[in-house]
């Protein structure tokens, strides 16, 4: 989550810093320091193992994915948890800030119960992944590397999905958009993925910061990390499922409603009554499962076969 960063933005001294920066009174070195602090607080990495983690379930394979641009210095730690069905739909899981994969297992388990094979990664700087602290640019690159691995694991485009939670939702939107713009499309333009799932996410980091801080200034001019999904989602050319809990006290559900308004058809907005920032998949599992079955064409027969 990005809560600590948003709390930090509330500080009175930062409001003065924002104003000074916008009028050119703050030195360049100070802005560099601000950018470093910004990244640190946005990603807010918790080292080690999440306290609720009880070990890997049987069948999970641990992978190391090299980062080509790092010339062998960095790699991404990944989990691949294949479903029992050989040709089950596969999803790339992109997590948010703070917790590494050990803190994500409950949601990964739920996706597998829905019938998916799951490939989940830690971005550089998280968990066992090797690399410098992450930035917006590096997490986008990491998602692309993971996607290339998912393509190898599930070669059928009609069975590949992208999932992102919270900050990972912005990463997922960027990946889905770039699949349209940058990668060649085989088979006469068939989409490279069957769908995008974005849960508990936001329109842009600046929009969230503005809501929390009540700063009446163009915050986006100062933030070096944009995560601007509202400007990108119309470029996604695949079915989009947006999910949000109605009781999310960190990121208001209206942000998913705004993303839904900008997304192209086919699209679906699923609001989980009583869902919080982290538990919508669990308490809304029935609605979630129904949406996956009906919206993405993963019918009951297909779903039951995937669970065998």
Could you explain how this protein is built, in words?
The chain has 308 residues and is of the alpha/beta class. The protein has one domain: Rossmann fold (3-Layer(aba) Sandwich), CATH 3.40.50.1820. It has an 8-stranded mixed beta sheet, with helices on both faces. Helix 4 links the parallel strand 3 and strand 4. Helix 1 packs antiparallel against helix 3 and helix 5 crosses helix 6. It is globular, with a radius of gyration of 19 Å. The C terminus is likely disordered.
Per CATH, the class reads Alpha Beta
Predict the CATH topology. Answer: Rossmann fold
Task: Tell me what portion of residues adopts beta-strand conformation.
Answer: 5-15%
Radius of gyration: 19 Å
Total number of helices: 12
What's the shape?
A: globular
Multimeric state of these chains? single chain
Structural class: alpha/beta
Instruction: Quote the average pLDDT.
Output: 85
